[in-house]
């Protein structure tokens, strides 16, 4: 089933109140974030205060004329210290939050089938590239093995050690020279790991 992408807006809030993505702390945090539950204004604050983009991904089920929220992603920018040999501080694209509904995690099933989470990752990475960024970064809890595995599969590498909240910074080097079909060229590579840290 194809994903329908919709930019987050407050009038969609009623459609996402049943969103659940797990029981771990980071899942609860992601749920509160996307629901913009007061006093924690998560996604809304991310958009209004930081100018970030937030997208919702739906599947429409014709038979029951129903639509389901599969997941969400977001994109902004931060000042980031890039690892050696470059070592410079510059603006990088940043994923503040991303999650897939429990119901759609690991789906659709089947060999050589792209999961919804992969489509969502590809969408965010594509937009970061289109915005002209050279790096894309994010934080993930060190114990969130499933998310870490997902990010690694999409070319992210861990940078340095965890911060005081147990979060690891991960970075993907983007190649903005898109080859035909919008796919990254063979030049794309992971970052060189160094002692750089997020600012
Ligand atoms: C992280 C998330 C987006 C991944 O999407 P998903 O559809 O569940 O991902 P997949 O099912 O494709 O699993 C990703 C990989 O982790 C592996 N995996 C599954 N459960 C795992 C576990 N408990 N420990 C380690 N790896 C695990 C899968 O086998 C898969 O690896 P593979 O492609 O080599 O087979 C989704 O699980 C989610 O929203 N989690 C809750 C919110 C969250 O953690 N957001 C990220 C915050 S940084």
Describe it:
The chain is 22% helix and 28% strand. It contains four helices and eight strands, in the order βααββββαβαββ. The protein has helices at residues 25-35, 42-50, 116-130, 145-153, and strands spanning 4-7, 53-61, 66-81, 89-95, 99-100, 135-141, 157-159, 167-173. The longest helix has 15 residues, at 116-130. The chain is globular. Mean pLDDT is 86; it is low at 179-199. Bound molecules: coenzyme A.
Layout of SSEs?
Elements: E1 4-7, H1 25-35, H2 42-50, E2 53-61, E3 66-81, E4 89-95, E5 99-100, H3 116-130, E6 135-141, H4 145-153, E7 157-159, E8 167-173
The structure holds coenzyme A.
Coenzyme A (COA) binds at residues 21-22, 26-27, 30, 98-100, 105-106, 115, 117, 140, 144-147, 149-150, 153.
Q: Main attributes?
A:
199 residues; Aminopeptidase; 4 helices; 8 strands; disordered C terminus; binds coenzyme A
Quick summary of this structure?
With 199 residues, the protein is α+β, with helices and mostly antiparallel strands. It is 22% helix and 28% strand.
CATH topology grouping: Aminopeptidase
Class, according to the CATH hierarchy? Alpha Beta
In N-to-C order, the SSE pattern is EHHEEEEHEHEE
Report the end-to-end length measured between terminal Cα atoms: 40 Å
Which ligands are bound?
Answer: coenzyme A
Number of helices: 4
Q: C-alpha Rg, in Å?
A: 17 Å
**If classified by CATH, what would the architecture be?**
3-Layer(aba) Sandwich
Largest sheet: 8 strands, mixed
Write the CATH homologous superfamily: Gcn5-related N-acetyltransferase (GNAT)
The residue-averaged pLDDT reads 86
In terms of DSSP E residues, the strand content is 25-35%
When the domains are counted, the total is: 1
Helix content: 10-25%
Quantity of strands, as a count: 8
- Outline type: globular
Runs in which pLDDT lies below 50 for 5 or more consecutive residues are: 179-199
What structural category characterises the helix and strand content? alpha+beta
